Amino acid sequence: MSAIARIPAAVGAFAALLVTSYAAPQRTTHRSACAASANGITLGFAGQFAGVSQDDHKSNLWSGRVSGSMSGGLVVTLEPLGSLMETANPIWQVKTRWSVPAAAPGESSLAAELYGTVNWKTGRMRLSGVVTEGCFKGYEAIVDGRFADMDAAGTLQIQPAMALR
């Protein structure tokens, strides 16, 4: 075979090598995020106000998404603590539940119970608590967020319990 005749074969082999050696970026699953993040993770979140919870008729509900080493849907319930009269104040003491359902079969979910304050005048939300379900169960969770026009955004930090002390 002449050198010129070998060029198409070489180009074809090179193209095949490129195609087989290139792997599309794989989406990080909850399971791999859990295994790779023993020291904790920081997730971004964004959620839109979805009304009053139909489960207890006293919690406010947000739905949205988390992003980072775990990604997927997010549901947050926020319940003011104290009397109904106290909700007239701009600063609320609150109890929240954060839930990131499994995105697909075989992936982990995440749930956390957090307490703290929401300042409706400034929009600032500061919460802390514990992960109650999923591979990070027992880890501490901290939210630093903001509300703007009732939509929420910020970060959810999940760390081993001793890492935050």
Relevant terms:
165 residues, alpha+beta, Porin, eight-stranded antiparallel β-barrel, 2 helices, 8 strands, 16% helix, globular, disordered N terminus
Describe this structure in words.
The chain has an 8-stranded antiparallel β-barrel. The N terminus is likely disordered. It has a single domain, classed as Porin, CATH 2.40.160. The N and C termini lie far apart (72 Å). Strand 7 and strand 8 form a beta hairpin. The protein contains 2 helices and 8 strands. 16% of the residues lie in helices and 47% in strands. By secondary structure, the protein is of the alpha+beta class.
CATH architecture: Beta Barrel
Q: Strands across the major sheet, in which order?
A: 1-2-3-4-5-6-7-8
Outline: globular
Fold-level CATH name: Porin
Mean pLDDT reading: 82
Strand content: over 45%
Secondary-structure map with pairings?
Blueprint: H1 3-21, H2 30-36, E1 41-52, E2 60-67, E3 72-80, E4 91-100, E5 110-119, E6 124-133, E7 140-148, E8 151-159
